[in-house]
Design brief:
With 814 residues, this protein is an alpha/beta fold. Helix 7 links the parallel strand 11 and strand 12. Helix 3 runs parallel beside helix 6, helix 22 runs parallel beside helix 23 and helix 26 crosses helix 27. It folds into 5 domains: 89 residues, MurE/MurF, N-terminal domain (Udp-n-acetylmuramoylalanyl-d-glutamate--2,6- Diaminopimelate Ligase, Chain: A, domain 1), CATH 3.40.1390.10; 204 residues, UDP-N-acetylmuramoyl-L-alanine:D-glutamate ligase; 131 residues, Mur ligase, C-terminal domain (Protein-Tyrosine Phosphatase, Chain A), CATH 3.90.190.20; 228 residues, Alpha-Beta Barrel (TIM Barrel); 124 residues, Beta Barrel (Lyase, Ornithine Decarboxylase, Chain A, domain 1), CATH 2.40.37.10. The chain has 27 helices and 41 strands. Helices cover 30% and strands 23% of the residues. The protein has a 9-stranded mixed β-sheet, with helices on both faces. The chain has an 8-stranded parallel β-sheet with strand order 30-29-28-27-26-25-24-31. A 6-stranded mixed β-sheet has the order 17-18-22-19-20-21, sandwiched between helices. The structure holds pyridoxal-5'-phosphate (PLP). The site of pyridoxal-5'-phosphate (PLP) has 11 residues, from strand 31. The site of pyridoxal-5'-phosphate has 11 residues, from strand 31.
């Protein structure tokens, strides 16, 4: 680009304040941090809700930028640069882009629709690139700002443009239309996204159609609303699955194991087309591409051979965790100069590590000579402070000398063979390559391998829930947290550590060995053992655990050992049976209990406790009050007789919620800490702690009449896409959750379980979900919740949580 300032002034109708209107600019910038800013840049000072670029102008002038389009001239900047003053800098950017676009006279494809724009754009780029030098919007640059920037990147070597336009409300499309002025319009899927900005679907459609105001053809899926809103003069090219009068009538769709076959008629002839996808969104997107190729008059063989090579378009610039504490930016499906600039700016914004490596393939479609292209790339690399370049490809290898600290390989295979000799650690790695280089293999090597099935524990949520229950306690009331059963399945030591950090007063475990492993892990908080066997008393004493004593026999056994070991005031906890009838001294043993403890110096009654049988069910309120009253009476008797003042406690989680007057000196919090309440109203206040996750191992499509799993308990009524997930009843997923009862969540959608849950695996229906092997699966967490699963299985959340087997790795995060 080279445009004279005076032409820009005329185009924008700007007020000019400066001295050099005869000068030209060769690039446009809106980002003060962009490393491409230079003396020949034209900087548009945009004003956003949180950011006013006018505030950077002074610094930009110091950095050498000379030309600005502004709403006003910032104080102190007068006379130090060329200023083009306009009423609205965003409008000016669009006007400039429209003016620039009009200098070119090649076909331009404009894409709009609610879904599929980026995919169709990338696929068309791939399908048409053997014959055209294409400029396309980078990433999903489809906004009011993104569209003009995309268009401004056109240069003289291009001969086809593909631009997408997304709008969120009325009146936006007319502006974008002037900038793109597409000659070919493609309307991709019209879903419901962004509906908030429109009064009706009709308004949304008619607004979107404004993009194609002057297009020579509009390609779309036949739909009455669209037909009705297209102006009569436009040439239409439509397709349909069910309307024979569409230009392309797809009358048959067959889903195979890894592809789909379409039969369609076009201009009186019938064709069959195979595409390497099965999901309905991809099929629709591929059909949009088919119509475009037909419009360009490609023959059927070329269309088929190119379509077979279509690839999944990942969202570009994905950040992933890498090996050796690296961070990976995956941009492994494209390599052109424009997108390299964007990727490098993105790399700059990811500031985790000062060290930066770029793995870069040969670059195609630049419209520049190789000398000029790689010289520019080298400058970019220096500007962006890249520490290391790994170049892969014949051409980039030839220009190795242009880069400092650069190694090159002729092929991706050569790089992979040398991988062991390269050091990657504590750095950000941008992986950017043209599709033909198959850099996804490099991504795989560098990506951190995570275990397939994990229970992720959100430690912040635990802290949050703890504080929620603490806030319900009266001043001075202590808190014991139950971490029995491996922290209700969530992991023992990690959670105990967190609770110790939060200074809880006591931890409670069910058996001595649970307490011992916490003590061995360094826990100092006192630990009460609910159900100590007499044989474990020596170990309890050795590890300074505190036993709950619930019967005379146990008391005598403990005292015997205590005397042998000459203990002094060893803390014990006296459990009273007030109605639960599980463990505890009942009323008629109190006398003997008191007599035995009278004057006993080896032990000390640290606390007296009981347990409510019905704290979660207000139907049994009266019974709970009876238990509380009995506890009060029995414990008072012991305290008076022994003249002691121990801690008293009777409330568990739902007791804390329902019987606030029975807190005594301590409460015992259990399931609430893990984010589960028996009360739906209270549930709203708790945060989900555990998310059980897995991945898809394999996907296949079966036909009607075929079955899934043991006993053929799922029979497909129609073609069904089946995903296998490596988690089964041996991991704690109940068989009752299979056979259509339960579901898992994939990409925020429900996938119901097909047939029986196996020992180590289960199968789910993903016919309506766009997913691939390796995609993440949620077994429980936010959805479905443990509470929902428990309800459907006729059990309680406690059982679901504690059933998750120890072989499932626990991963803790904040
Ligand atoms: C498990 C347990 C608790 C905690 O019960 P939640 O309902 O999980 O809060 C309290 N006291 C005793 C004796 C327990 O066994």
């Amino acid at each position: 680009m080279s445009i004279l300032i005076k032409d820009i002034i005329a185009t924008l109708g700007a007020t000019y304040l400066g001295t050099h209107p005869e000068e030209a600019v060769d690039n446009v910038s809106i980002d003060s941090r962009s490393l491409q800013n230079s003396s020949n840049s034209l900087f548009f000072a945009l004003v956003g809700p949180n950011n006013d670029a006018h505030t950077y102008i002074e610094d930009l002038i110091k950095a050498g930028v000379e030309n600005f389009v502004v709403n006003y001239i910032p104080e102190g900047c007068q006379d130090s640069a060329n200023f083009l003053v306009v009423p609205n800098t965003l409008d000016a950017l669009q006007q400039f882009a429209a003016y620039y676009r009009n200098q070119f006279h090649f076909p331009i494809i404009g894409l709009t629709g609610s879904n599929g724009k980026t995919i169709v754009k990338e696929w068309l780029n791939f399908l048409l690139s053997p014959d055209f030098n294409i400029i396309r919007s980078p990433k999903s640059y489809n906004s009011q700002v993104g569209v003009p920037l995309s268009v401004i990147a056109i240069n003289k070597k291009h001969n086809l443009g593909i631009f997408e336009a997304g709008i969120s409300t009325v009146n936006e499309m007319a502006k974008v239309e002037k900038v793109i002025r597409p000659t070919i319009g493609i309307f991709t899927n019209i879903g419901s996204s962004h509906d908030e900005g429109f009064k009706s679907l009709e308004e949304k459609i008619s607004e979107k159609l404004l993009l194609f105001k002057d297009s020579e053809v509009i390609i779309y899926q036949k739909n009455e609303l669209i037909d009705h809103n297209i102006q009569a003069s436009a040439k239409k090219m439509s397709w349909s699955f069910d309307q024979e009068d569409a230009d392309v009538y797809v009358y048959k769709k067959e889903i195979n194991t890894d592809s789909a076959s379409l039969q369609y008629s076009y201009q009186g002839k019938q064709f069959s087309l195979k595409i390497p996808f099965q999901d309905s969104a991809s099929i629709e997107n591929a059909i949009s591409c088919l119509l475009t190729l037909l419009y360009f008059k490609y023959d059927h063989e070329t269309i088929q051979s190119r379509m077979l090579l279509l690839y999944p378009v990942e969202m570009r610039l994905k950040v992933k965790n890498g090996i050796n504490n690296c961070s990976i930016i995956d941009d492994s499906y494209s390599s052109d100069f424009q997108s390299l600039k964007i990727a490098l700016d993105f790399l700059e914004s990811q500031k985790q590590f000062p060290k930066k490596t770029v793995i870069l393939s040969d670059i195609f479609q630049s419209g520049l000579s190789n000398e000029e292209l790689y010289a520019r790339v080298a400058r970019l690399v220096v500007f962006n402070n890249i520490n290391r370049i790994i170049g892969i490809g014949e051409t980039i290898s030839d220009f190795k000398e242009l880069f400092a600290n650069c190694i090159t390989y002729k092929t991706t295979a050569d790089f992979i063979a040398d991988f062991e000799n390269l050091d990657f650690s504590n750095e950000t790695i941008l992986i950017k390559g043209a599709r033909s280089f198959q850099f996804e293999e490099i991504v795989q090597l560098l990506e951190e391998k995570t275990h397939e099935t994990v229970l992720e524990i959100n430690l912040n949520a635990i802290s949050y829930n703890l504080n929620y229950f603490k806030s319900k306690l009266k001043p001075k009331v202590k808190i014991m947290v139950m971490v029995k059963a491996f922290g209700y399945g969530n992991g023992g030591l990690e959670i105990a550590n967190l609770l110790e950090h939060h200074k809880v007063d006591y931890l409670g475990v069910a058996f001595a060995d649970e307490g011992i492993s916490l003590k061995n892990g360094g826990i100092k908080t006192p630990i009460m053992v609910l159900n100590p066997e007499n044989t474990s008393f020596p170990a309890i004493i050795q590890h300074q655990l505190e036993p709950e004593i619930y019967c005379l026999k146990g008391l005598y056994a403990f005292l015997k050992i205590a005397k042998q070991k000459k203990l002094q005031h060893f803390p014990i906890h006296i459990k009273l049976d007030t109605g639960m009838h599980r463990l505890g001294f009942n009323e008629d043993t109190i006398e003997e209990l008191v007599a035995t403890l009278q004057g006993e110096e080896t032990v000390k009654v640290q606390s007296i406790l009981s347990h409510l049988a019905t704290s979660d069910d207000l139907v049994h309120r009266e019974f709970a009050f009876l238990q509380i009253a009995l506890f009060e009476k029995m414990s008072a008797r012991i305290m008076t007789a022994l003249a002691i003042n121990p801690i008293r406690h009777i409330l568990n989680t739902s007791g804390i919620s329902n019987y606030p007057d029975a807190q005594f000196n301590m409460v015992r919090l259990g399931i609430g800490l893990y984010g589960v309440s028996n009360d739906p109203a209270e549930q709203k206040y708790l945060e989900n702690v555990g998310t059980l996750k897995s991945v898809i191992s394999q996907i296949r499509t079966i036909g009607a009449g075929e079955s899934v799993g043991y006993g053929r308990r799922f029979m497909a009524q129609k073609a069904t896409r089946v995903a296998t997930i490596p988690i089964g009843y041996a991991d704690g997923i109940s068989r009752g959750w299979g056979n259509g009862v339960g579901y898992v969540t994939i990409k925020d959608k429900k996938a119901s379980i097909l047939g029986s849950v196996c020992m180590d695996m289960l199968m789910v229906d993903v016919s309506e979900i766009e997913c691939t092997e390796g995609d993440s699966v949620i077994i429980f967490g936010e959805s479905p919740t443990v509470i929902h699963i428990a309800k459907m299985l006729g059990t309680i959340p406690y059982e679901v949580l504690t059933s998750i087997s120890q072989r499932v790795k626990r991963v803790f995060y904040r």
